[in-house]
Amino acid sequence: MDKLLITGGNRLSGDITISGAKNAALPILCAGLLTADTVQLSNVPHLQDVNTMLKLLRQMGLRVEQDDDRYSLNGAAIDKCEAPYEMVKTMRASILVLGPLLARFGEAKVSLPGGCAIGSRPVDQHIKGLQAMGADITIEAGYIHAKVKKLRGARILTDMITVTGTENLLMAATLAEGETVLENAAREPEVTDLANLLVAMGAKIEGIGTDRLVIQGVAKLHGASHTVIADRIETGTFLCAVAAAGGDVTLKNTRGDILEVALDKLREAGAILTTGSDWIRVQMSARPKAVSFRTTEYPGFPTDMQAQFMALDCIADGISRVTETIFENRFMHVQELNRLGASIDIDGHTAIVQGVDKLIGAPVMATDLRASASLVIAALAAQGQTLVDRIYHLDRGYDRMEVKLSAVGANIERVK
What we know:
Helix 8 packs parallel to helix 9. The radius of gyration is 21 Å and the shape is elongated. The protein has a 4-stranded mixed β-sheet. A 4-stranded mixed β-sheet has the order 2-15-17-16, with helices on one face. Strands 4-5-3-14 form a 4-stranded mixed β-sheet, covered by helices on one side. Strand 12 (204-206) and strand 13 (212-216) form a beta hairpin. It is an alpha/beta fold. 31% of the residues lie in helices and 26% in strands.
């Protein structure tokens, strides 16, 4: 099993190119199920989750051709409307095949996703919405069995804001009969990116980027070309790394307008940020200042950046309060950060972080994707060596992180 060996203390300097967004690429790949024509995608990140999704889609009969970060998807020969447990258990985003399969083929058999380390993420909102559109859905032996002659438009108000729920119902609604209104829809940039692709494929969607999406169903969708947006979480992660280790780094192929709250918090911490249409430069020369924040749905502070900012707060001047409102079990990185010398106490859904003068390297273990990133950030700022175990979590969502960090001066290597 691979690990990362990191020797802290190096300032970071140079350029990093940001990859396409994992959380946009996964639903966009599933959109290839909606048409028999060819969908051309570019800026698709090289990630384990992307490989898993492509394996699942190929198994259904989707033809996939790849040239580096460019993919050609063709759904003319899909002959299997099933997502087996063996595939879904490794990646919850597999549930995103449910809506497209049901909309185009009138049936789907998808395994219920398993548990998730960071907390419960139920799919009941997906099921409730599809039932409102006329689907007959039963759950047997751990599988969602869905059938419908033709999905019908409906007004759907979800009980909670759900990103994958919005994406699943949005894709299903594009081929439904009549008008579908999604109320309380997720507004994340990744949802907007999916909607923009669907429009390019011939879908009729109003309200893109808002919490109310109105979709007029069409008889069929056609092929299109689309470039996946930059990964705002990878962007934020590298910004935090520079803020923690110090340095001067320019991030390329990214956008600041989809990460504004996190950028404001970095400025509050003392980072100097300058932005262009497709780049962000971060400069940090002093000890960071403690910043408090509360995670919430977009456009608020993203839960996927909570762990990385907590790592920054560990070495900051002052005391910060970090409140997690999205997932009930997303503080598992706390005990690992404390192993490096951090001073963090948990009070319910809030972590109180007392900044310390220095962290000391130690063996630590990644528990989930973003927790992995927080340990890398802490290790870059720590004295001595840190060995980060279980980095398969990291590989699910970061495209060769150690290569990108090495290129700007970090002492980091992948070891067996």
